[in-house]
């Protein structure tokens, strides 16, 4: 028992600060507005996301893609026109740039419609379906994917897209919440300011940004004296609570990146084991717990030896 305690303490000390090999990649897609006021709003939100991804999340230009309804609305003239083909190509391009342990952020803003796997957000030309997006993100199994669908009637995206190492956020709970969505504006606002960082630790988690947007969206309706007609959903609050947008990469060494990804997988196994504790024989649980704690400690030491910062 004393050996297990010492091992646990070693892991806690070694993991006190997060590993810094993570890189963040971002794909921003703003759809058809239908009316000038919506086109303007979607374009402004896309531009704001692109700017903060570069400045706050430190996303490299090669890993930062904005696909827009009208490229002329981009003051920097870097956006590409949104279409089913360009979205597919964007996922392909990112798949060639990501490494194990990276975070891939996808934000989809616009008018949506819900039909199960055939749910969509309107883009110029043929609309990609939720099932298309699911197939495009399937290749990011060694990354954490944060997929935000900030659109009306977007609830059916969640069951279609959710999976291991994924956080899926939708602006509405069901496809029947079809009214104009205010979620995107509040989500972007939270990312731009420090208000969403509720614990004030300087690290904005996905769950903090979600909670802020939910709270502020409700205030918009309350101020307008309107019934709340959208109820946002997050697929995995546990993963959302430990996933941050900002990359803190101090090492580009592929050995460090791979080791961090391996340690993350072990940490996920440890979390799953703790959930099964009540259903396992005590000796079996303690044996597996010790194995994982030792493995995590060894992986942390390997990261440090390779020049990473555990």
- First-to-last CA distance: 26 Å
Stretches where pLDDT falls below 50 for ≥5 residues? 13-20
CATH topology of the largest domain: Rossmann fold
Counted by DSSP, the helix tally is 10
**Number of beta strands:** 9
Which term fits the overall shape?
globular
Q: What is the CATH architecture term of the largest domain?
A: 3-Layer(aba) Sandwich
Supply the helix-strand structural class.
alpha/beta
Number of domains: 2
Q: Proportion of β residues? A: 5-15%
Q: What is the typical, i.e. mean, pLDDT? A: 88
Could you give the order of strands across the largest sheet? 3-2-1-4-7-8-9
Question: Largest sheet at a glance?
Answer: 7 strands, mixed
Computed over alpha carbons, the radius of gyration is: 21 Å
How are helices and strands ordered from N to C? HEHEEHEEEHEHEHHEHHH
CATH class of the largest domain: Alpha Beta
Helix content: 40-55%
């Amino acid at each position: 028992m004393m050996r297990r305690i010492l091992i646990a303490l070693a892991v806690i000390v070694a993991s006190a600060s997060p590993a810094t090999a993570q890189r963040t990649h971002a794909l921003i897609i703003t759809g058809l507005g239908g009316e000038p006021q919506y086109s303007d709003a979607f374009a402004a939100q896309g531009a704001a996301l692109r700017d903060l991804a570069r400045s706050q999340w430190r996303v490299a230009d090669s890993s930062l893609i904005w696909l827009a309804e009208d490229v002329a609305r981009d003051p920097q003239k870097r956006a590409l026109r949104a279409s089913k083909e360009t979205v597919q190509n964007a996922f392909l391009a990112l798949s060639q740039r990501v490494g194990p342990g990276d975070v891939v952020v996808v934000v989809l803003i616009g008018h949506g419609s819900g039909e199960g796997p055939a749910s969509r957000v309107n883009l110029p030309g043929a609309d990609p379906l939720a099932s298309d997006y699911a197939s495009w993100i399937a290749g990011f199994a060694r990354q954490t994917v944060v997929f935000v669908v900030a659109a009306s009637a977007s609830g059916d995206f969640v069951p279609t897209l959710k999976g291991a190492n994924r956080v899926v956020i939708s602006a509405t709970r069901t496809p029947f919440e079809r009214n104009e969505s205010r979620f995107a504006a509040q989500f972007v606002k939270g990312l731009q300011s420090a208000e969403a960082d509720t614990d004030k630790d300087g690290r904005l988690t996905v769950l903090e940004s979600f909670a802020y947007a939910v709270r502020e969206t409700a205030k918009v309706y309350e101020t307008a004296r309107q019934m709340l007609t959208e109820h946002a959903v997050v697929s995995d609050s546990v993963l959302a609570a430990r996933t941050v947008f900002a990359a803190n990469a101090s090492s580009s060494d592929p050995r460090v990146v791979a080791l961090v990804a391996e340690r993350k997988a072990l940490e996920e196994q440890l979390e799953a084991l703790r959930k099964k504790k009540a259903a396992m024989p005590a000796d079996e649980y303690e044996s597996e717990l010790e194995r994982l704690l030792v493995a995590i400690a060894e992986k942390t030491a390997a990261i440090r030896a390779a020049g990473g910062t555990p």
